[in-house]
Amino acid sequence: PAQSRSMNDISDTPSTNQLKNKFMKKIPRDAEASNVLIGEVDFLDKPFVSFVRLAQATTLGGLTEVPVPTRFLFILLGPQGKTKSYNEIGRAIATLMVDDLFSDVAYKARDRGDLIAGVDEFLDEVIVLPPGEWDPKIRIEPPKKVPSAEMRKSVLNLNELGQMNGSAGGAAGGEDDELPVQHELGEELKFTGRFCGGLWLDIKRKIPFYCSDIYDGVHIQSISAVLFIYLGCITNAITFGGLLGDATDNYQGVMESFLGTALAGTVFCLFGGQPLIILSSTGPILIFEKLLYEFSK
């Protein structure tokens, strides 16, 4: 309701709702706004896109959520029936404007080619997750090395943007040496004709990293997972150990359950490669041990 109903209603003075917005406390001083405007119209057959940079930042009344002067305007108008696509384009432009490097490019760009070069540089550093190829319930580890804004600026010299139109993607030649080698089919995955030949080659390949796979997990963030797995194992060992002791006249009780769980869990974690699986006694094991004891007795 606070937004203007037409461009003629836009004034230089901020509205009352803008002045009362507490979000203004989080915005740094001398910040400027980028307004992304999209919409459907009935008088266009093809989408119309305009990216505007004002010579001087101007307060556009209630157009922005907070009383911040506007420097950039992105306008997308198109025929009806494609609202979702227009929303995604507007969200992509807003994400671009948040990036430090692209905002610098937008401030200093001289033509459309400079903006396209900035987009190419942004896409070179962005990580895209296809919606159908990953499980959103699985936690994704953050990248080990995040390129800093200063490093990216050194790769893309903003003063030479006019000479790099359309070629910003190839400007990061200095960083290519640090990228990992493209994955290829290893020898351990090929047919050798020998019994367990591929397995032996795989073991030889992994031996140099076996110790690091273990001591890399000794980290403060692993303590909660270790305690959770320990409690998950110990509670089952106590429960089924007590029941097993009653069924076997204490020949196999809680302490034996502890020892068996510890030995089986250690061997499985070292050689099975799945240390987060909780190993413990179950109901069928309890019945089997009871029947075996009675048979032996």
UniProtKB/TrEMBL annotation:
Look up keyword Ribosomal protein and say if it applies: no
For this protein, the parts annotated as crossing the membrane are 225-244, 264-288
Where is the protein localized?
Basolateral cell membrane
- Mind giving the lineage of the organism this protein is from? Eukaryota, Metazoa, Chordata, Craniata, Vertebrata
Residue ranges of the Bicarbonate transporter-like transmembrane domain? Answer: 194-297
Keywords recorded for this protein, A-Z: Cell membrane, Ion transport, Membrane, Transmembrane, Transmembrane helix, Transport
Family to which this protein belongs: Belongs to the anion exchanger (TC 2.A.31) family.
- The record's principal subcellular location, in a coarse class, is membrane
Q: Which InterPro entries does the entry mention?
A: Band3_cytoplasmic_dom (IPR013769), HCO3_transpt-like_TM_dom (IPR011531), HCO3_transpt_euk (IPR003020), Na/HCO3_transpt (IPR003024), PTrfase/Anion_transptr (IPR016152)
> Topology relative to the membrane, per the entry?
Multi-pass membrane protein
Q: Does the keyword Chloroplast apply?
A: no
Q: Which residues form the Band 3 cytoplasmic domain?
A: 5-136
Protein name as annotated: Electrogenic sodium bicarbonate cotransporter 4
